[in-house]
Each structure stands twice: as structure tokens, then as C-alpha cells.
Amino acid sequence: MGGCMDFGKWHVLRELGSGGQGTAYLTVDRTKLNLDSMIDRLRPVINGIQQVTQTDDYLARCHELLNIIDAYTNREASEHCAVVTKRSLI
Asked: Interior CA angle at 45 toward 63 and 50, to 5°?
């Protein structure tokens, strides 16, 4: 599978395999976890960390960054994902 594939609310993370029922993909529900918005949030959070002058603000920005990283690293958790076949996506 080359590049990214999106089908409606489903964003394909990777191909799992193929057989008689078609090709199966691990997909993330973009209504539950929007990877693009996570990436868009990263730059302002990182820039904000560099610009803060008070400890409380610094800690809050660091916590926000860790939450984004945590959400990204857990993107394949069952509450965000489903296994779908190409046949069911079309």
C-alpha cells in the first residue's frame, strides 16, 4: 500500500493482510482521533514551551505536549481503531 488512504471517517494506518474476503486494514476513526489535528497542535505547543516565563505555564505546556504524544503513541488502541476490508470501505 503506497501513501495514505482515507475512506470517509477511516484513516488507514497499515495493511494487515489479504485473502478471499479482500484486503484487511487497520484503520483509525478520525472522528475519535484526528492525527492531522495532533500534528497541527504540536508546533504551537512546542513554540509556547520555549516562550513561557512562569513555571506553571511551562508545566501546563509540557503536560499538553505529553498528552499529544500519548494520544499518538496509543493511536492503535481498540477505542480508536477497527479492522476493515477494502471491500467494506468501498
From this structure: 95
Q: Is residue 66 within 8 Å of 48, Cβ to Cβ?
A: no
- Pairwise CA distance, residues 31 & 34, whole Å: 7
- What is the tens place of the pLDDT at every residue in 13-49? 999 998 887 889 999 998 888 888 888 989 899 888 8
- Going across the sheet that includes 10-19, the strands are 6-7, 10-19, 22-29, 81-85
- Which among 24, 26, 69 has a CA at the least distance from the CA of 46? 69
Q: Per-domain residue ranges for the chain? A: 1-31+79-90, 34-74
Query: Quick one: cell of 61?
Result: 505546556
What is the pTM for the complete model shown?
A: 0.66
